[in-house]
Structure formats: structure tokens, C-alpha cells
Amino acid sequence: MVQSIGFQWRIYLLKALLIVSLLTIVVMTQVAIAKKLTEAEIWQIERPIDAFDTVFLEQMTWMEVRDAIKTGKTTVIIPTGGVEQKGPYSAIGRHNFSLQITTEMIARKLGNAVVAPVVAFVPQGSIEPKSKHMLYPGTISVREEIFVELLIDIANSMKAHGFKNIVLLGDNGGNRSGLATAEQRLAKAWQGSNSKIHYIEEFYDNPRWKKWMKARGIVEVSEGYHDGYRSSSVMMLYDPMTARMPQRLEKGLFHINGISLLPVDKTIKFAKEFVNYRTDVTVEAIEQALADDQQSAVK
């Protein structure tokens, strides 16, 4: 009986010690979290786990971003899309969805780049009175000056973290003037610094894309929608539901501008070819812009 009581007390003691130990760990962890680290300490703390393989900034931990910069990934792509009407068949976030495909391919082909979150809110027309795409429910518009200031703040944030080459891309024709303005203002503000800003117009070049399609025998006849075979095919590659494939098949409307989206494999194959082509054009333009910077620096 005495031995049994002694054994129980040992169990209670071990439990108490375990609880104290756990509480100590919790307290120490909270103290560590509460401690304000210096920037020098932030750049020296060892990452406790392997990095996740992604080029998307918002999917990374801050340590993964830091270590990517340390290992030479000093180019950051800032993509701009939009939320606007795309006819009766395509989701209004199409620009942003498309950018998820193209920017990943561009960053991986460059080899030294990451991709900032898509800037989804862009000028789409006046809000009051409503104009342009704002006439259609769901469209989100911001004023041109707000768009420009947002781009400038994002780019300055990337510069502050150590990115050397900040690349602006626009998947929407309405973004072009704001992107050009932001580039001009930042280029002037960053004179003499180690960071450079580049707006790559080649990324959005509809005449070039139409010529490329025509060479493949694809000529569209507009049905009057803000939609087309090229963009619809990319949505099929991203997710067929964003192009409302089942619903259109049911109604016999799985076509756009006189071109059938069937067979699906053919449409997706075309989308892959186009995305590859657009990636090649854009990467070439980015590399040329960076090479021009280096030549200017030598002079």
C-alpha cells in the first residue's frame, strides 16, 4: 500500500514537472515573439525549415523572401489586372487569373525573379456617373491617380526590401497610361540608386498577338462581346469553369467570335502555345531592359 502511494506521488510529481516545463516553454516563446528584432537580426536568423518551391511572393514566408533575395532573386514582377465585365461567358476576374499562369512562367524562365500579388483594382471608368466597364455590375474601378500612387508604394516597398529590378506588367489596356506614369516618376525618384524600374509594354501587345494567331489560321469575327478566342482558351487552361464550359455546352454556345472551343484538348493546346509565346516575348523584353541598364551604368 505504501509503495503504491509512493508510486502515485511520483506520477503526480512528474506531471507537475511536465506542466511547469510546458508553461516555461510557452512563456519563453511569448518573450521571443514580443522581442523587437533589429533589421540586422532579421537578415541573420536561420530559417528552421526548407523553403517552399514557389515564385509567388504572397505564398512565401518572410524568411523565404529574404533568402530568395540573398541567393540572387533580385527581380520582382508587379502584375496589374482588373475586375471588369468580359461578356456573358467569362468570369470578371479573367485578367487576374490569366496573370497567375503567365507571370509564373515568366519568373521561372528568368530564373532570378519573384512575383508580387496581382494589382486587381485598376481604372475601369468613372464611378459617378458610371462609364465604360463600370456600367456593368461587378466591375471595380479606381481613379487613375490612386492607381499610380498604389504602384509607386508597391514598387518602393520592393525596393526597400532589396529588390534591384522592379518590373511592371499590365494585362489590361486601361492600365497602360498609369503604368507608364508610375515608371516615369519612379525612374526620376530612383536616379543614382541601385534599383531600376521597368514597364514592359511588350507584355500587352494585341496587334502582335493577332498577327501570331492569323499565322495559325485563326481569324475572329466579333460577336460584340468583350471576349475572344485567345483569352477564352487561356481561361480553359486555368479552369474551364471560368469560361462556363458546362453551361455553354448545354446551350450549344461553346464558341466565341465564330470559333468553336471544341475539342477542348485543341483549345487548351492553343492556350499553352500562346502563353509560351507571350512568355518568350516578355522575357526577351525584360532581359533587354536589364541589359540596357548595365550598359548605361558602364557609360
Describe the structure in brief.
This protein is of the alpha/beta class and 299 residues long. It is 52% helix and 8% strand. The chain is globular, with a radius of gyration of 26 Å.
CATH topology: Rossmann fold
What's the assembly state of these chains? single chain
- Could you spell the SSE succession in H and E letters? HHHEHEHEHEHHHEEH
Report how far apart the termini are. 93 Å
Low-pLDDT stretches: 25-29
Q: What is the CATH top level name?
A: Alpha Beta
Number of helices, where a helix is a run of at least 4 consecutive DSSP H or I residues? 10
**Average pLDDT score:** 92
| Protein structure class | alpha/beta
Number of strands: 6
**Total domains, how many?**
1
Annotation keywords:
single chain; 299 residues; Rossmann fold; 6 strands; alpha/beta; two-stranded antiparallel sheet
Question: Could you explain the architecture of this structure?
Answer:
With 299 residues, this protein is α/β, with parallel strands linked by helices. The chain has one domain: Creatininase (Rossmann fold), CATH 3.40.50. The protein has ten helices and six strands; from the N terminus they run αααβαβαβαβαααββα. Helix 4 links the parallel strand 1 (75-80) and strand 2. The longest helix is centred in the C-terminal third of the chain and has 35 residues, at 264-298. The protein is globular. The model is unreliable at 25-29 (pLDDT under 50).
